[in-house]
């Protein structure tokens, strides 16, 4: 427990949730399937993946490039912040 009475695992879950939301936002606003999908075939794959080549430990990996394009202004990709009133903060214990 920290000085605010919050347990560390709860904080970790909150951080994970925020990161997942940020990733979803990035994919939704920056990812173009025809340009930003990366596929690497015949690469190391976990033996736990039954769909891979278990004998040679090979499989296929996908990557999603959701970075902000360098030639576009960053302002169009920055997520807005929703203001939260003090009353709401108290009710939510933020």
For the sheet with most strands, the description reads: 2 strands, antiparallel
Radius of gyration, CA atoms, in whole angstroms: 20 Å
Kindly report how far apart the N and C termini lie: 16 Å
Order of helices and strands: HHEEH
Strand order of the largest sheet: 1-2
What gross morphology would you assign?
flat
* Percent range for β-strand residues: 15-25%
Uncertain regions spanning at least 5 consecutive residues: none
The percent range for helix content is 25-40%
What is the count of helical runs?
3
Give an overview in words.
By secondary structure, this protein is an alpha+beta fold. The protein has a domain at about 30-65. Helices cover about 35% and strands about 15% of the residues. The chain has helices at about 10-30, 35, 85-90, and strands at about 35-45, 60-65. A two-stranded antiparallel sheet has the order 1-2. The radius of gyration is 20 Å and the shape is flat. The mean pLDDT is about 80.
């Amino acid at each position: 427990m920290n000085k605010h009475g919050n347990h560390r695992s709860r904080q970790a879950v909150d951080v994970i949730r925020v990161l997942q939301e940020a990733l979803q936002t990035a994919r939704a606003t920056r990812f173009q399937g025809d340009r930003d999908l990366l596929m690497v075939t015949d690469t190391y794959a976990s033996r736990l993946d039954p769909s891979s080549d278990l004998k040679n430990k090979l499989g296929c990996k996908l990557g999603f490039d959701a970075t902000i394009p360098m030639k576009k202004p960053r302002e169009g990709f920055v997520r807005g912040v929703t203001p939260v009133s003090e009353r709401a903060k108290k009710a939510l214990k933020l």
